[in-house]
Each structure stands twice: as structure tokens, then as C-alpha cells.
Amino acid sequence: MGRYTMRAYTLTDKFKSIFARRGRSIVLAYDHGIEHGPTDFLDNPDSAEPEYILKIARDAGFDGVVFQRGVAEKYYDGSVPLILKLNGKTSLYNGAPVSAPNCTVEEAVSLGASAVGFTIYAGSDYEWKQVEYLAQIKRDAVKFDMPLVVWSYPRGGKVDAKYNGNEHHPEVVAYAARIALELGADAMKIKYTGDPKTFAWAVRVAGKVPVLMSGGPKTKTDEEFLRQVEEVISVGALGVAVGRNVWQRKNAVEFGKLLGQMVYEGKKVAEILEPAVNSSP
Q1: What is the pTM of this model?
Q2: Is 163 a catalytic residue?
């Protein structure tokens, strides 16, 4: 046996033990207030209240929530595990993509977080700075035994020049997955390519780092989003980190339970939607 041995119980293992206790994961993301502003709450005004988000997560049986520090300080009650987002930017900023830290890992520990999250925009003019930020956060995460979830969203630079700004392009998403692995993520959140075959490659190049699909904007129909979830699960994603596609719907808890049937029980879209169709007048 060589001198160097791998850590027997990794932070990825810890992440799964908390956020994927049933083998798969659904995390309710709620960092949109800073990223997009309160216009995201207009479809379902109840979603402006963090207590409502916690209730959805509890009642739908999700594995966790994602909050920014201010929301966590004032509303987090410990009823579901917390991923504390350590950075964020506003939609008012109009320069090259960059998102600076607004919270430390140590502060996240004091707020009751079970993991921390950090967004990096590879390709941005400020990519170098964000890599520096992430390196320090990774060191602190290891120090405090805290899993690190990387929101890996290439943006700007060649994403604009070569891919016409298409952040869902298969090559961009696969690169995003690999970047997260290489920079020390214990779990990652990446966008869906729109096709399970190409997303399977992103999952593969993510290596041992579990992949959560980013939920993205609310789809026109329930079926459209459920099919996306079915497809990513079928090619090895651990689950989804979803926000608007749940809490923008007036039937958020009911829809969340449908997601749970797919992610945790392995049901297909046809199995879930057929009873609803047959019971409708």
C-alpha cells in the first residue's frame, strides 16, 4: 500500500448522508431574491415569505433548502437541512459576470448550515478572481467539515463568442461539470442540456461528484419539467435543485410530492400524470 491514502469518509459522503438519505435528492432553492429580485415572487405571492418556502420543503418531503445569509438569520428554523449560499449578485449589475462572497463558512456553521454553496462563472473576465474566492472557501469548508456545493455556470467569454451565449449547450454544461470536479466540489449544480444523451456525458465527466440539475425558469406545463427530471435521473444525476418550478406554482406542495415520486420512488411521468388525467372531469 502506498504512502498516500484517500480519506475514508469524504465530504461528498457527508453531503449524501444529509441531502440524499433516500439515495436521491431534491433541494428547494431560494436564493432568487437577490439574484433576480422580487419579481420572481409575483406568480405566487406567498413565495415572498421564507416561512412558506420552509413549509413547502417540509410538507413535500424535500431534503433541504438553499438560503442566503440574511434569510437564514431571520427565518431558518432547523426543520429541514440548510445549504447556505455564500455568494450572490443582483440583476441590476451590467458588467462581466462576477459574484463575490457575502458570508464565510464559519458564519454558515453558526447559522446551522449542513452545507455551503458557491457560484462560479467560468469564462467571465473575473474568472480568476472567482477561482481565488472558491479556493479559500474550499479550504475553510475542509477545516469546518462542511460539504461544498458548486453552482457551476460558465458565462461570458467564449460562452458568448463560440456558443452565442447558450449556457445549456452540451459542451458548456460538460465543461461546467468538469470545472466543479477539478476545483473541489463535493456536489454540483449544473444546467440541463435539454437532452439526456448529452447530459449523461456531463454526469460522467463530473466523476465522483454528485450532480444536481438546476431547475431553471418555470416551465409552461407540469409535464415539461417532470420530463426533464425523469431524463436527468435516468442518466445518473443525484437529483435536482429546484426553485421557481416548485414555489412559483400555486399547487407547490402537490407538485413537490409528484417530484418526490419520480426522484425517490423512480416513477415515470406517465405513471404520475395518468391518475390525474383519469380523475379529471
Answers
A1: 0.94
A2: no
